[in-house]
Design goal:
single chain, 134 residues, alpha+beta, Alpha-Beta Plaits, four-stranded antiparallel β-sheet
């Protein structure tokens, strides 16, 4: 049974012109991109998306970063999409990510780590709705 997840190519990767390489990897991993948009989040939109982290010390830096440039938001679909996308992305810290993962290849730091992915089915549903309300 197919599942959906949200994927984001973050501002650091967009600025480095890595959109095509990351999308190629997504397709090579058997995902179907069912929705995609290029956008520039406002600070308020970034705060709304990351509201779950509002009380965390990294919240302001994260929302500043995510509103610092364009992002690509996508809905990905395939069997076990959430766990597969998280494996393809690699660990949050690029230095600790497995070789060949997107974050190991293209990430710079824990915050500037090239991509985002949903961590659970309920999170994926909320995140997809945040960017792709009909």
């Amino acid at each position: 049974m197919n599942e959906q997840t949200l994927a984001i190519i973050k501002p650091d990767a967009v600025k480095k012109n890595l959109i095509g390489k990351i999308i190629q990897r997504i397709e090579e991993e058997g995902f179907t991109i069912t929705a995609m948009k290029l956008l520039h989040l406002t600070k308020e939109e970034a705060q709304g998306f990351y509201v779950v982290h509002k009380e965390r010390p990294f919240y302001d830096g994260l929302t500043d970063f995510m509103s610092s440039g364009r992002i690509v938001a996508m809905t990905l679909e395939r069997e076990r999409a959430i766990s597969t996308w998280r494996k393809v992305m690699g660990a949050t810290d690029p230095a600790k990510a497995e070789p060949g993962t997107i974050r190991r290849l293209f990430g710079f730091s824990v915050e500037r780590n090239a991509t985002h992915g949903s961590d659970a089915p309920d999170t994926a549903a909320w995140e997809i709705d945040y960017f792709f309300k009909e």
